[in-house]
Amino acid sequence: MTVCPKKSFRRCATRAYLLMICLLAGLSERIVAKETEGGSDWQSYNSQNTGNAFFYDRRSIVRQGDRIRVKTRIRFGASLMGAYSYQQLLEIDCNHRTERALRRTFFSDSQWLSPAMAPQNDPQPAMSLDRNSPTSELADILCGV
Description:
The chain is an alpha+beta fold.
């Protein structure tokens, strides 16, 4: 059984392709909406010409003195050793301008659904923020600089 008749195959195939794109777009919107409903509020704060997009969860922000803990995500423009996205619990020290990853997970998809490996729960040492980095931009937003 053929889905598209031979006479109008190109038109029919194009319509099927467009329908598939619309369905996938609708699925992506539902995934994002589910994240918001589930207690997350992901806000974009940076994008690069490499295609990398950076987000933080406004509802995850916890302030402790000069330190802020926040969940962040990166959607890679291209695969990074088999990973297409990344999520971390990040600690930013506003006073000393440092960052420290507390928990990290790489994902084999771009929607943060399929972990590529077990989460890394070992806190990393604090590192100085690079002035031109996306994390420095996030620190400016969260620390009120």
